[in-house]
Write a structure and sequence with these properties.
Number of helices: 8
Strand content: under 5%
Structural class: mainly alpha
Distance between the termini: 84 Å
Largest sheet: none
Number of domains: 2
Shape: flat
Helix content: over 70%
Number of strands: 0
Order of helices and strands: HHHHHHHH
């Protein structure tokens, strides 16, 4: 303890009320170890500070007073550390979000890139996806300086690639179905053999053996059914992707022909010295390509969203139906067991 000039012990202490008020106001304050008495001057100052608080801060201080809290040095230090850590975390999170937003903004194509793409490839900025977001199964090699013959050849090549990809997807779906069906059959066979071995060893009863065989049959049927459903879904997805890619290819062909015509007219106009008019021709074709591409993309995305929502709704309905069916089955089994117990009595 510190001593006064006359040798007496220091009778002051932590200004608890000031600390509470400062905590509520989030303002700097001097903290002394709790548990000691305060001086009259400190009490008067605390009362004055409390009187000048806003209604919300008064509620906080009153709550602290009602709880009769005493804050020691350790509690205060811990509070300050937590506060500083929270502020650092908030600052780091804000910086991270800002960096992510900036990176996302940089990924978006600029107006100049859109215009360039519209004048060369019909506005298709992503060579790996169709305008609806499906995987692009053909190589887009359309260029604005192609002849009509080259455009037709590119169109035919793209159609071949689309058909070939669709065939491969359907074949993969069939092969996956066969593998899953084979695995289900093998699993049932192994389960049945395990049950036989346990029955021979006396580990299970005959009734348990029959129940196990029945469960194995049910599991096999369920697995085969799931495999069939997945096969149909995969084949359906292959058909949808094929249709989307064929449409995307047609749109790209039309946009390329539009660009080619504009470039030819522009070349003739430049030869005549009409550069301004030539530039207007190419800009008009690019603007039309960009407008059509934007419209096609919006329409395709809207359609895909609608299909996805419909599929989700259908899956939820199916799950709900299966849950209700399982509940009814359990209820019937419970009633059957109850009747059997009553007959046994």
């Amino acid at each position: 303890m510190g001593r006064t000039r006359k040798g007496g012990k220091f009778k002051g202490g932590p200004f608890a009320e000031t600390f509470k008020t400062g905590l509520a106001m989030k303002s700097p304050f001097n903290v002394v170890v709790a548990g000691q008495s305060t001086s009259p001057e400190a009490d008067a100052k605390a009362a004055q500070d409390k009187a000048t608080l806003s209604p919300d801060d008064k509620d906080i201080v009153d709550t602290i007073d009602d709880r009769k809290m005493d804050y020691g040095r350790e509690e205060v230090d811990a509070f300050m550390q937590r506060k500083k850590l929270a502020e650092d975390q908030e600052a780091a999170e804000a910086a991270k979000n800002a960096a992510a937003a900036e990176a996302e903004k940089e990924k978006e194509p600029t107006e100049e890139e859109k215009k360039d793409a519209a004048s060369t490839t019909g506005g298709d900025l992503n060579p790996e996806e169709t305008k609806g977001g499906a995987d692009q199964s053909y190589t887009d090699d359309y260029k604005g300086d192609m002849t009509k013959k080259e455009i037709r050849e590119e169109n035919r090549e793209n159609k071949k690639e689309i058909r070939q990809t669709a065939r491969e997807q359907k074949k993969d779906a069939r092969d996956d179905f066969k593998d899953r069906k084979k695995d289900a059959k093998e699993t049932k066979k192994n389960t049945k053999q395990d049950l036989k071995d346990k029955l021979a060893a006396g580990e299970i009863t005959k009734d348990e053996f029959k129940a196990g065989k029945k469960d194995a049959r049910v599991d096999k049927r369920a697995e085969k059914k799931d495999a069939r459903v997945d096969k149909r879904a995969d084949k359906k997805d292959a058909r949808k992707d094929k249709k989307a890619n064929k449409k995307d290819n047609r749109q790209q062909k039309k946009a390329t022909k539009r660009t080619t015509r504009a470039n030819k007219r522009s070349t003739r106009l430049i030869a005549k010295g009409k550069t301004d008019k030539a530039k207007k021709k190419t800009d008009k074709a690019a603007a039309k390509n960009l407008k059509k591409t934007t419209k096609q993309t919006t329409k395709a995305v809207k359609k895909q969203t609608k299909i996805a929502n419909k599929a989700t709704k259908k899956a939820d309905k199916k799950d709900s139906k299966a849950t209700k069916k399982a509940g009814r089955k359990d209820k019937r089994a419970s009633k059957k067991a109850s009747r059997k117990n009553k007959r046994g009595k």
